[in-house]
């Protein structure tokens, strides 16, 4: 049986090889797939919905087994490699008038990913949910900013080099940040 979601996704990816997302219409997609507009709207609410579906499907796979302190580097490198392998999709989505879509998507993906690392590292520390969320946001903004700058500059640098540089900078820092929060909480308790 035909998987229309995948067909629509492939059509969008193919179109993004030659034009930005804001130049693609639902009519273009359904004509390419030889189906009705109703078929498209049965699966997706709009073009951005299909872009979100593509990104979620593929980035989830890249990150799925690497949400811990030992392998976060592999997951982040997998994500950057997926972005690079899908350069047209990423760049032409980023260059469209909906740039913030990719920025928000990347933030959300990285927040969820980094939060699992922070939760793992927080075991045994007296830190609140708000403090763990703050640490997660701190690292998410850093990782996201680096990835977006890399996209903005044409994805020239190899993902492995980026990840190695980040790993050198943040080695031990997830735990160190939580230790500092823990120590501050203990000081406040003692008065």
TrEMBL record:
<feature type="domain" description="HTH tetR-type">
    <location>
        <begin position="2"/>
        <end position="62"/>
    </location>
</feature>
<dbReference type="GO" id="GO:0003677">
    <property type="term" value="F:DNA binding"/>
</dbReference>
<dbReference type="InterPro" id="IPR001647">
    <property type="entry name" value="HTH_TetR"/>
</dbReference>
<keyword id="KW-0238">DNA-binding</keyword>
<dbReference type="InterPro" id="IPR039532">
    <property type="entry name" value="TetR_C_Firmicutes"/>
</dbReference>
<dbReference type="Pfam" id="PF14278">
    <property type="entry name" value="TetR_C_8"/>
</dbReference>
<feature type="DNA-binding region" description="H-T-H motif">
    <location>
        <begin position="25"/>
        <end position="44"/>
    </location>
</feature>
<dbReference type="InterPro" id="IPR050624">
    <property type="entry name" value="HTH-type_Tx_Regulator"/>
</dbReference>
<protein>
    <submittedName>
        <fullName>Transcriptional regulator, TetR family</fullName>
    </submittedName>
</protein>
<dbReference type="InterPro" id="IPR009057">
    <property type="entry name" value="Homeodomain-like_sf"/>
</dbReference>
């Amino acid at each position: 049986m035909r998987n229309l979601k995948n067909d629509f996704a492939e059509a969008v990816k193919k179109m993004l090889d030659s034009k930005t997302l804001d130049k693609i219409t639902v009519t273009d997609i359904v004509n390419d797939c030889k189906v009705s507009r109703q078929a498209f709207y049965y699966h997706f609410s709009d073009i951005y919905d299909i872009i979100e579906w593509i990104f979620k499907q593929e980035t989830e796979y890249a990150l799925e087994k690497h949400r811990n302190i030992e392998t976060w580097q592999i997951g982040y490198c997998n994500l950057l490699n997926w972005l690079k392998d899908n350069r047209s999709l990423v760049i032409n989505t980023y260059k469209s008038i909906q740039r913030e879509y990719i920025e928000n998507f990347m933030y959300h993906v990285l927040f969820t990913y980094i939060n699992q690392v922070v939760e793992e590292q927080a075991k045994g520390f007296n830190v609140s949910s708000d403090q763990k969320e703050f640490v997660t946001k701190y690292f998410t903004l850093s990782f996201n900013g680096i990835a977006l700058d890399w996209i903005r500059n044409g994805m020239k640098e190899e993902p492995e080099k980026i990840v190695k540089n980040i790993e050198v900078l943040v080695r031990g820092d997830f735990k160190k940040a939580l230790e500092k929060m823990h120590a501050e909480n203990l000081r406040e308790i003692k008065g």
